[in-house]
Structures are given as structure tokens and as C-alpha cells.
């Protein structure tokens, strides 16, 4: 069995470590932060009223069977995970004041019919038949299999039905315009491009698999917060004998000849191993840990980032669901701002609010709001400039007030997190949530899991098969399987 060094104790790193340890490998994890979890972050604020707890990363748990398989494969179920099914999955508030609550399964089309009329529901059902084909093709050929080059996807050309489903050259926006007549449904579909940090006008149509995974199979909240997944993974790693060093940054990948031979820690200590797994943004790997200018240049187009308000709110807000999204009048203006040159924060952004009805998240008589706005990454825009973050926080609260939810006189506190803060916390360049933006046909080709040198592997949301908790855990399975087959 091999000795393995894992860089990063995010979900991808911990999941890979658990799988490899269960297979008999000796695994050591180095994490630069003081806590495990990576982008599955948590924030706690203690006040006179009590303690507020926030998830600062993913807010929806989908495809739980992926986690179930991971824990079963590494020693048994994870009783720490307490799943709470969400209905609605998301409450959508449109510019004209209409509301649409999404849910899993065929019932969503019925809700569309009730809210927008029978023709809109008919359009959605037609799109959904297409989405099922996209999902089936994506699951079989992309999400659960290694994709190291365009040749892998080119193989779909021999399966004409699969190729037609993926629709190379078509965008998610184009797919919506072709199938959906109601502009509100088009807006709803466009939002799923942001799940990969992309502009829907440039995102590949195959990203239709993302809403299908959520709206066909459902979504859950983990009681106690989604950060409990990181706790469960860390506990599983400990039970399997994985050594995890927190607060221990890795400065570079140690290379001997043409293979990865370990890592060099901050301060210069070399730690040798047979294999290295990097659970870090691919640009950070190829720009900083293993400088590869050509690979780094190909990753320069950063995905969008997130501007976050963490709010302690007095009282209750009945018009909110667990997740509520407030759309702007001009959705395109948001993407023009974020991906423009120069980039800038949207003046009238989409605002996404998460407010969990979980006593563990907030004191009685209060709400804990996680407010997310799509934003340009650090570097494209300077979030560290004096007054910028606080000024934009004021703007976001004013936008919410204009859309009918004014909580400015009910705030107990507000904490602000910008893309610059995510960059600092996770070493993710620019604080770009999803690494490289998924634009064009290459949007389906995330950086491969096999690294630039032998015995180096990459795992996590910035590499194949993509971002989001289930895909990151699938990434870990792909890496562990490749190592096991070597």
C-alpha cells in the first residue's frame, strides 16, 4: 500500500482520504486553515440574545445517495447526518411580484401551471423530458467517469442520442429561449448557470443537468447546518487512521524527476510520500504549488464570486422560505457587470436569502440570514478598497427593501464576507467559488483529476466533474478509483 499526502481538508480532500485509508493506504492531510471543511465554511456570532450559526458555503444538500455510498464504502453509515427534506426547495420572487415555489418531482410543473398558466407548465414538461436525457448522459459519461481530454467527450459522437442531449455549441440561455415562452421560467433556468459560476448566455446547455438533479431528486438541509458533513467526514477519517494536520500550510508540491514525491510545508519542511492529492483550486495548484504557466493561463477566466451578508434579525419574516431568491428587473445587467471589463458589483443584483428554521442556528425570536449576491472575484474588482464592502452591504439591504423585505430596523448585527475574504480563508484565487468559469464547450471540461506530473491527482469543485457537494464527493471517488487501479 502507498503513502499518500492530501493537500487540503475540504470535502474533496477528506472524502478522498477516507476512501484511500479504507483501501489500506497510509494517508496524511495538511490543511492551512485552523478548521476542516474548506469552502463548506461556518461562522458563529455570539450576542446578548444568544448564538447565531451560519453555513457560509453550500446551503442545499442534493443527491444524498452519493454521501451514503461514500460512508458505506468507508465503514458504515454516518448517523451524524440528520437530513431535513425541503419544500419548497427555493421560493422565487420575480420582478412583477409573482412567486413560484419549487419542489421535487412532477409536482413542480403543476405549481408552474397554477402560477403562470397551463402553457407554461406544458413548456416546462417538454424541457424536462430533454433534461432527463441530459442527466442520464451526463451521469453515465461525465459525472461518474474520468474526463482527461476532449477525446473523452468526442466519444459521444458515436452515440448520437447522447450527443444530441448534450447539445454541444448551444447555451443554457439558448435552450431556455427555445423551450420556454414565459420570461420568468427563462429567468429561473438562467439562475442555474450560477451554480457553476457562469454567465447563462455563455454556459453550455448541458448544465441543464444541474436543475434536473435538484428538481427531480430533491434537496435537503442538514440539521445543525451543512457543516456537519465536514464533521462527519473528519470523524470517519480519524476512525480510519488518517492523520489530519490543521493550521499547516503547504507551500509546494515536491517533484523528483517527473513524479510528485510529497510536499514542502511552510517553513521548508519536506514530507515525502508515494502519491499526492491536491484538494485545492486548480489555478492555485498550477500557479503556486506546482508552477505550470501554460496550465495556469488556461484557468485565468475566474468564475463569479459571492458577496455575503450574515445577518442577525429580530423577529420573524413569514414571506421567506428556507431559500428565497429575489430576481432583478434586468438579469443580463448583472452578468454584464460581473464579467465586464472592468468588472463591477451589480447595481441591482439577484439576492439569495437562506434562513433556516433550525433552533441550532439562532436564538428564539430571531432569524439567522445568509444573504448571497453574485459578485466579481477579487482581482477583477478590488473588494479590499476602503469602504467598498460596507458600502455594497448598504446597497444590498436597500435592494431587499425595494423588493419588499426591509430588515434594516430589525438588525442585531451584520457581518460581511467578500470574495477577498474567501481567497484568504481558502487560498482560492480571487475567491472565485467554482474556480474556472464554465463558459463555452470547454465549460464541460474541468481540469482533469490526473495532475501535470505522475503520482499527482486533483480533487474538488474546481476540477472534474465540478462544484457542489455531490460532485465533489464524486470527484473523490474518481480519484480514489484511479489510484486503486494504478
Automatic annotation (TrEMBL):
Instruction: Say if the entry is tagged with keyword Oxidoreductase.
Output: yes
Which Pfam family is one of this chain's hits? Answer: Amino_oxidase
Offer one example of a GO biological process linked to this entry.
carotenoid biosynthetic process
Instruction: Specify the domain of life of the species encoding this protein.
Output: Bacteria
Please give the pathway this protein is involved in: Carotenoid biosynthesis; staphyloxanthin biosynthesis; staphyloxanthin from farnesyl diphosphate: step 3/5
Q: Residues in domain Amine oxidase?
A: 12-483
Q: Which reaction does it catalyse?
A: all-trans-4,4'-diaponeurosporene + 2 AH2 + 2 O2 = 4,4'-diaponeurosporenal + 2 A + 3 H2O
Keyword Oxidoreductase set for record: yes
> What InterPro entries does this protein map onto?
Amino_oxidase, Carotenoid/retinoid_OxRdtase, FAD/NAD-bd_sf
Identify which cofactors the protein needs according to its UniProt entry.
FAD
Task: Drop me one GO molecular function for this one.
Answer: oxidoreductase activity
Instruction: Name the UniProt key words of this record, in alphabetical order.
Output: Carotenoid biosynthesis, Oxidoreductase
Family, per entry: Belongs to the carotenoid/retinoid oxidoreductase family. CrtP subfamily.
Looking up NCBIfam families in the UniProt record yields: crtI_fam
Q: What is this protein called?
A: 4,4'-diaponeurosporene oxygenase
UniProt organism field: Dactylosporangium aurantiacum
- Gene label: crtI
